Fold:
Amino acid sequence: MIVLTTGSWPVQYRPSWKINAERLKDKGVDIFVIGTNPEIPEEHLKEVASSNNDVFTTLSVENIRSVRPDLIERVRSGN
Structure:
C-alpha cells in the first residue's frame, strides 16, 4: 500500500492512523509512505510506514516523481 500525505491530519486522528496501520502490517501489508510537505514531522510518517526505509519525502506533490526510482526499488526488494 502506498500512502501519499501532506501530513496535515488533525492531532486527534493520529492514534487512529497508528492503530489502523498496525492492523494492516499485522496482516502482512507493506505500507510505503510518501510525505509531500517538508514540514511533516518524519516521526509521523514512520509511525504509519512498515519500516523507516519505507518513508519517502518530497517538497510538494508536483515533485513526487523525484522519489519514484527509490520507491520502485523498495517495492521490488520487499521488506
Q: What stands out?
A: The CA atoms of residues 20 and 48 lie 9 Å apart. The chain has a mean pLDDT of 89. The two ends are 13 Å apart (CA to CA).
